[in-house]
From TrEMBL:
Domain of life of the source: Bacteria
Gene3D superfamilies assigned to the protein according to its UniProt record, in alphabetical order: NAD(P)-binding Rossmann-like Domain
Name of the protein: Polysaccharide biosynthesis protein CapD-like domain-containing protein
TM segment ranges: 15-37, 49-68, 80-101, 113-132
Organism: Silvanigrella aquatica
Amino acid sequence: MKINQELFRVYMKKVLIVSIDTLLVIILLPIALYMRVEGIDFTKYSEILFPYYYILTAISYIFAFFLLKTHRVIFKIASIFTAIRVTLGALLGAFLFYILSNFIFNLDQIPRSVFIIQFLLFVPASGLFRFYSRIIDSFSHKFFKHGIPTLVYGGGINTSRQLPSLLNARSEFKIFGILDDSIFKKGSDILGIKVLGSEKDLPSLIKKYKIEQIIISMPSASGERVRFLVKQMVNLNLKVKILPSPESSLLDPNDKETKLRDIKIEDLLKRTPRSIDKELIRETIENKVVLVTGAGGSIGSELVRQILVLNPKKLIMNDSSEFALYKINEEVESKYPTTEIHAVLANIADDFSCHNIFNRFKIDIIFHACAYKHVPLVEDNISSASINNIKSALNIFSQAAKNNVEKVVLISSDKAIRPTNVMGATKRICELLLLWHSQNMNSKTNYSSVRFGNVLGSNGSVVPKFIEQIKTGGPITITDPEITRYFMLIPEAVALVLQAATSKNSGEIFILNMGKPIKIVDMAKDIIQLMGKKLDQDIIIKYTGLRSGEKLFEELHFEFENLEEVTPDYSRISDIIQIDKNLINSIQNILNYAQRDNDSEVKHLIFSLINQYEKESKLPFNFSPYLNKNQLEINHPQEIDTSSITAAQTEISG
């Protein structure tokens, strides 16, 4: 009902625009005739004008309006291109009117110049109709507006397109001018607002206009540049807001929702836009049946949003969390009413539940984002976390092979490299499982994996924790002053996952080139500053010591893995290690102990298995803190049920 009401409202708005344009051309016809023939007696032309010419002029212009889509203009962001489109529409309408009148219906009583005069009158009248709100807003903002004295930083396309929304009467600030890094723009004018200078002019402009706030409108600026500007502005006691680009959506060019907002820590870490192959991604996803596991999580839900933009034939969202699945389903169901979307509430670590999904749907592509990822929680719940992370991956990979799924993409983690905690260790085992299926299952399925660093904005990430600690007066708690992490933004993560789905070679691992790792303490200081607080005066930082299984720094790949740069943004590992066919037996043994809730044995077996593979890869022998050299033999009793894997192999090879 809600979506129907919204569509009806949009439809009626377009009808109103076309109706007003049509009314204008009808009214302007006798005016044009009067201007052409002075002292005209309209009673003499009444039979000519009513109804034929009015009907023909309405039909001609309406056809032209719809052909050039002049009714699809958002008045608040109308631009020179809007004026060009309306002018071309009016010109086409005048031409059609002339052809219909003189050559189709042989109505040649009106001079040809009347058609031209009508066109020349319509263009400014229509422009006034479309731009009137902007003209009024600009005039009233300049002479009558009161609000927070503000400057806009950035004089590019983003500012010229969105300035009208900043100038409207409902805004809480008054814009005194624009700053831009280009010296050539100084003195120029953008919609009546003058470019006053650049960064070096900021102190004098603050003093002159008593500026209290800066709006950064530089969507192409790097995080480093934004970080530098924000620090300067905060030091000058200015409030700072940011105006994102309407095209901020990764793959959806029609997503125009843009809101002025406060600076986020993500803005300071933003990198150059990812060089992904959007067309290849679209070709891969379009008209395919796609399954996203863990669809209610941070990465999973963003994958859902971006996949729907790519027009899949069907999207299956799976999660074991009822609330998380309900939330993403509510969001996308109303936004994409024409796409077949299924929300499947199931635990895919359960054999029957996973099998049932593949029975219900003929799946083409799988994005496996389902996993427990919070290190301390996994460390306290080793058995259940191992079942969830390892068994769900085992079920998905084997069912994909059995059902000839085209592609499977695993979401892995940088914590899988030399893991010092159970979460990272389970992720590494999932990678080994993926490689095993790629090498040993004689199927058409293409398996690939993506390794992430920490994702900013994800559920349970460090940023929301710091913000909450600051709001409550501190202290901010950090485990170690030297601890560093790689960070990426959710759009970057999703871009890499979607790019991995285009891989032609099974078994490849993709890694985002993430630049330098960031010290957590530096991030905490940035957040303190962004929230208007002062370190050591308002908020202190308290160091608590590294937690069990926590690393001081993370890595993105092993020494034996040779990275091949695909683009400056991401690399891939294709010279993968060979996986022993007995891997499945070892993993099933781990799962048997996990089902008995034997945490210590599960931990031992997991790290023994990982060390065994890293030993074969000539890595330092003793990198795990849980094991020593004498613990590497797996000599525990086997209680293995590999019937499902054996059956899958038999069916595929047969």
